[in-house]
Amino acid sequence: MRAVITVVGKDKVGIIAEVSRVLSENRVNILDISQTIMQDMFTMIMLVDVSEAAIAFSALSDTLSDLGNALGLTIHIQHEDLFNSMHRI
Amino acid sequence: MINTMEIMETIKMISEEHLDVRTVTMGISLLSCAANDMDTVCTRIYDKITRQAENLVKTASDIETEFGIPIINKRISVTPAALVCESIKNSESFVKIALALDRAAKTTGVDFIGGFSALVHKGATRGDCLLIDSIPEALAATDKLCSSVNVGTTKAGLNMDAVKKMGQIIKHTAALTADSDGFGCAKLVVFCNAVEDNPFMAGAFHGVGEPDAVINVGVSGPGVVKCALEKVHGADFGTVADTIKNTAFKITRMGQLVAQEASRRLGVPFGIVDLSLAPTPAVGDSVAYILEEMGLEQCGTHGTTAALALLNDAVKKGGVMATSYVGGLSGAFIPVSEDAGMIAAAQSGALSLEKLEAMTCVCSVGLDMICVPGDTSAETLSAIIADEAAIGMVNNKTTAVRLIPAPGKKVGDVVEFGGLLGSGPVMAVNERSSCDFIHRGGRIPAPIHSLRN
Asked: Is the model's pLDDT at A83 over the cut of 80?
């Protein structure tokens, strides 16, 4: 299953490194990354493959959420199909 | 990969604009539970519901986590209980059935169960009468149970005996739940042209034309529509309609996705997506605010009906292409106590009961969650039901009435229900009597345009 991770917040050193570390530790494969600054906010979108993940999806979601809190960012992980169905016919 | 702007738009809709799925509702047929003994029926009902809906709440929660979409309520609708209980031999009250349904709801962990219902649009059977008489006690004795009675259709006309009866039932329900300001009435709907696949409470039931079990989904999203309209401030109505359609499409696609996933994971057929804009009392999640965004100083003023007509139509046009099966009530809801903008408009005097009645001609569903003075007579309640049912009958649409004659409350008082049901200001009713009209009894014949064959 593929999922989209969104990271939004104030830019600082090491955001990508920290998020990637958590994903690597949990055997989540990163397929694509894009990053931009939108309205002064750091915005990163990652497409990941969680089919080999070492933990359940809900646990991964909680872990990323906790990491977000620690870094002062908002991190979401959601099934890719949500975006496909809302924005593609 | 989907582009960043689109992804961020979805995230913003969910986190800031209250986009959510209002309900995943499992419809369950109870026709197989019929028996001629009350205790057997109760056992069969409880067993069937708890078996069929065993994984409903967990599955919906899993979908919520994986897709990051809040699913506010998980619900069950069942075959109208009057049908299931028709052949019970002794004429005891159906309160035991209500308790069995409530127990099943609690075991499965759902928020509401609907279907303590009777369809009496042309006349009532013995079972229908027993059920209707049990409603006040049933709603006072249960927590999760919702009840509905269909008193008219375009094809059959209005059963005015049932309309008269329901005024009395609403009064009695309010009296039995007086300690919670008549809260029992918030779980009771009187319909004209009730639909068989409605996922929304309190009027959900599982129609006899439905399969053994089915998944229906109701979407929400007034906040999203309002935010989209803010971006086209001052534009003409064509732009307004287009903006609403685009937004409704996205909201409905999300509902369709959730419905399909729930259906697949539970192994239960997908029924319909109900294209509704269902408000919540949260600030920013209001249908009234959408109407005000279109340029009305406050909901209820002149122009409100036209604005609502546009909104209701555009939601359907946008939503219909986004899902394979549309059903339920499908339209904008205007429940007064559940909508921050409606509450404010009613409190300030901008919105009256008469204006609400006019608004129900162009939207789904009817006079919903309206508190009226506690001393309102049963006949006046019946007359309000008759007016609303007539609108449904003549216009070939569903209309519903959910009135709360809050005991001891007067115009201007506020009744607190809490949660999704919000709080309602007590609204004035016309104090002239409708007594002789209601006591005539009999049926109002079906309108001429019901003869379509």
From this structure: yes
- Tens digits of residue pLDDT in B426-451: 999 999 999 999 999 999 999 999 99
* Of A74, A82, A88, Cβ closest to residue B10: A82
The answer to whether the beta carbons of residues A49 and A28 sit under 8 Å apart is: yes
Beta strands B443-444 and A41-49, pairing class: unpaired
B2 CB neighbours in chain A (<8 A) are: 4, 80, 83-84, 87-88
Residue A47 pLDDT: 95
Report the residue of B66, B320, B321 to disrupt the A interface, i.e. the one with the largest count of A CBs within 10 Å. B66
Q: Is the Cβ pair B6, A45 closer than 8 Å?
A: no
Question: Would you place residue B254 in the very low, low, confident or very high pLDDT band (cuts 50, 70, 90)?
Answer: very high
B119 token code pair: 């369809």
Structural domains of chain A ordered from first start: 2-87 (3.30.70.260)
Type of residue numbered B382: S
In this complex, the residue of A34, A76, A79 whose CB is nearest that of residue B4 is A34
Q: Helices B126-141 and B95-108, interaxial angle, to 10°?
A: 50
What is the Cα–Cα distance from A22 to A31, expressed in whole angstroms? 15
d(CA B69, nearest CA chain A) in Å: 9
Q: Which residues of A20-46 are buried (b: 16+ CB within 10 A; e: fewer)?
A: eebbeebebeeeeeeeeeeeeebbbbb
Rounded to whole angstroms, the Cα distance separating B431 from B372 reads: 12
Alpha helices in B126-270 (DSSP H): 126-141, 160-176, 222-230, 237-266
Please indicate whether, in this complex, the C-beta atoms of A88 and B257 are within 8 angstroms of each other: no
Measured distance CA(B201)–CA(B216) in Å, rounded: 12
Those residues whose C-beta lies under 8 Å from the C-beta of residue A59, and which sit 6 or more positions away, are: none
**A21: Cα separation from own chain's centroid:** 12
Percent composition of chain A: helix, strand, coil (DSSP 3-state, to 5): 40, 40, 25
Please tell me if residue A34 touches chain B, with a CB cutoff of 8 Å.
Answer: yes
The identity of residue B203, as a single letter, is G
What is the bridge-based pairing of β-strands B71-78 and B157-159? unpaired
> What ipTM, to 2 d.p.?
0.88
Is the minimum CB–CB distance between A24 and chain B shorter than 8 Å? no
Q: DSSP states of B180-212 as a string?
A: GTSGGGGGEEEEES--TT--SSSS----TTS-S
Q: How remote is the C-alpha of B18 from its chain's centroid? A: 20
SS3 call for B16: helix
* Band of residue B281 on the pLDDT scale cut at 50, 70, 90: confident
Structure confidence at residue A40 as a pLDDT band (50, 70, 90): confident
Classified as helix, coil or strand, B163 is: helix
- In chain B the domains, ranked by start, together with CATH numbers, are 29-192 (3.20.70.20), 217-450 (3.20.70.20)
Measured between beta carbons, the chain B residues lying within 8 angstroms of A76 are 11, 68
Name the A residues in 51-80 with CB < 8 Å from any B CB: 57-58, 61, 74, 76-80
